[in-house]
Amino acid sequence: MKLKLDENIRVDGADVLRNAGFDARTVAEEGMSGASDDDILSTVQQEGRVFITLDLDFSDIRAYPPHDYGGIIVLRPPSQDQLTVRSLVRRLLPLLSSEPVAHRLWVVETNRVRIRD
Prior knowledge:
There is one protein chain. By secondary structure, the protein is of the alpha/beta class. It has a single domain, classed as 3-Layer(aba) Sandwich (Rossmann fold), CATH 3.40.50. The chain contains three helices and six strands. Helix 3 links the parallel strand 4 and strand 5. Helix 1 runs parallel beside helix 3. The protein starts with a strand and ends with a strand.
């Protein structure tokens, strides 16, 4: 599975995914920091990647209909410190292997995952 992490998630979040065998890249690693949301999502679509972000704007299905994308995962940690975010990324690992993400919106919290088609 190919994933792209938004610039608001540190590179070590991508490392967690890469160490689990996923093809994970970050917006920052690809020199796209500061790019518009539209430019980032256009690149994500072209590359056929699932987008992972902390930005709640991407959970608006009117603005970002899940069927238009390879998948959007919005992480909702109780705090955005490095340890908490990395822990939430680790929580994704079994889900990514067992639950389809294509053309869906996942909102991942510490104690639950909401999925919208």
